[in-house]
Write the structure tokens for this entry.
Amino acid sequence: MTRVLVLNGPNLGRLGTRQPDIYGSSTLDDLRANLTEAAPDGVSIDLRQTDDEGSLIGWLHEAVDQRMPVILNPAAFTHYSYALRDAVAIVTEAGLPLIEVHLSNPHSREEFRHTSVITGVATGVIAGLGFDSYRLALSAVLHRLA
Ligand code: DQA
């Protein structure tokens, strides 16, 4: 069984009610169900969310130790967390795929969202497609593992 870690950063636990005009009205539980349904046989989805930077970093270390591919929505940490960037680099330097995802298109929003400190060390980035960003990332990480 291949386990795919799907990590979500701050405020994404409020999906469904948080700025639905930008993020839609579906919840994180809907996303988990959606990805679980999309996952092929032999692939399980381990979707987690935290508002805490240290927890996200710990989960990335776990991905390295357990050899798990990662889909990461760093949320606002995208724009300034060098600690998260360093942890992402540890994952990709270990040869594991890590795709950065965003529900919205940060480049069409406020200026501060145009910078990602994560993208430079991620395997790839998919943004602006709602839950499809995650579904495409799932197929990308599985393709990279194959
Ligand atoms: C986000 C975009 C970020 O700028 C924002 O801080 C988020 C969500 C997205 O999925 O579109 O919390 O990562």
